[in-house]
Structure formats: structure tokens, C-alpha cells
Design a protein that fits this description.
Number of helices: 6
Distance between the termini: 34 Å
Structural class: alpha/beta
Helix content: 25-40%
Mean pLDDT: 97
Radius of gyration: 15 Å
Strand order of the largest sheet: 5-2-1-6-7-11-10
Strand content: 15-25%
Order of helices and strands: EHEEEEEHHEHEEEEHH
Number of strands: 11
Low-confidence stretches: none
Shape: globular
Largest sheet: 7 strands, mixed
Length: 184
């Protein structure tokens, strides 16, 4: 199960783009509100009804944790102590972590970007402690997946699909969703 965490002020496209791509590939993705309410309002006023509340999960089936960016969504994720503990447990088990835009700062502040290539929204690289900041659209280094902002949403989704389902499946999705036309 890929758990996607939603906090007030999350960037809507950065959450929904990767979720859509992953679900098209047949991956199980569950949205989790860290607000105590099922409906979470994004940075642009779009309300999304999460599948569950943080407190309703034990996360034992987590294959990946995903943090969408946005402000103040990223700082709200960073302030959630339960989520921070979960991320550290997940990283200790050498399971994949993904984040986009400002949200990689959560991993950086936990020391999880040390010695890793990573990207994020410009200006947030100062939080990527010990990382090799690349400014790439998407970066994957081992079990750390990062994207630089809203334009990276689908590309990050394809990178996650490639990891779990293989490059062929990711390429079929790129073509089927007409993403390949952007590369022409």
C-alpha cells in the first residue's frame, strides 16, 4: 500500500497526479488525512475527501510513504509527530519514501537525505541536509524519490510505477496518457 498524506494547504496536483498514475498501474494507494478531519483543503481551495484519518491506520502494509508538497501543506506534514515517527520507522526498514515540491524538506530535516541525490522546489534545498541537490524534474536515489514541483507530478508517478511495476508498464502509461507528446 502506498500511503499519501494530506495536510491543510497541500498542492492538489502534486497529490492527485501521482495517485492517478499509480492507480492506473494497479497499485494500491490510500490517502490519509493528518488533520483529524476526512476532508482536507488544498493550497488552492480544493477540498479532497481522504480515504482515512492518520489515527485509523497501523501502516504495517506500507510499501511507500508519499508526501505531496504545497504550502503550508509541507510544514503541516512536518509538524505531525506521528507522521515523523512513521517516516523514521519506514526509512529504518529501508522502504521507499517519496516527496515532491517543498515536502522533501520533511525527509531532509529528519536526516534522510544525507548522501542522496534529491530535488525539490527551488529555495527548499537548504532543508535537504547532506543531499546532493540536483534541481532535476524527478530524482531517484535508492529508496528516495523526489520531484521538484507541480510540473513533476506525472513524471514522479511514472518513476514510482517503474519501481513497483517495471519500466515497460511505466512506458505504456506514458504513451496511453499521451505524456510522450510532451517529450517531442
Amino acid at each position: 500500500m502506498i500511503y499519501t498524506f494530506l495536510a491543510t494547504g497541500f498542492e492538489e496536483v502534486e497529490a492527485l497526479g501521482p495517485i492517478d498514475v499509480c492507480r492506473r498501474a494497479g497499485l494500491n494507494v490510500k490517502t490519509v488525512s493528518v488533520t483529524g478531519e476526512k476532508t482536507v483543503t488544498g493550497a488552492h481551495g480544493v477540498g479532497i475527501v481522504a480515504d482515512s484519518l492518520f489515527e485509523e491506520n497501523d501502516f504495517s502494509d506500507a510499501t511507500m510513504l508519499f508526501l505531496p508538497g504545497g504550502m503550508p501543506g509541507s510544514t503541516n506534514l512536518d509538524a505531525h509527530e506521528g507522521l515523523r515517527r512513521l517516516i523514521l520507522e519506514h526509512a529504518k526498514a529501508d522502504k521507499p519514501l517519496a516527496a515532491i515540491c517543498a515536502a522533501p524538506m520533511v525527509y531532509g530535516k529528519l536526516g534522510l537525505t544525507k548522501g542522496k541525490k534529491a530535488t525539490c522546489y527551488p529555495g527548499f534545498e537548504t532543508y535537504l541536509e547532506g543531499a546532493d541537490y540536483t534541481a532535476a524534474l524527478v530524482e531517484r536515489d535508492g529508496m528516495l524519490f523526489t520531484g521538484c514541483g507541480p510540473a513533476a507530478a506525472l513524471a514522479l508517478g511514472y518513476e514510482i510505477v517503474s519501481f513497483f511495476c517495471g519500466q515497460d508498464t511505466a512506458e505504456q502509461l506514458r504513451q496511453g496518457m499521451r505524456y510522450t507528446l510532451l517529450q517531442a
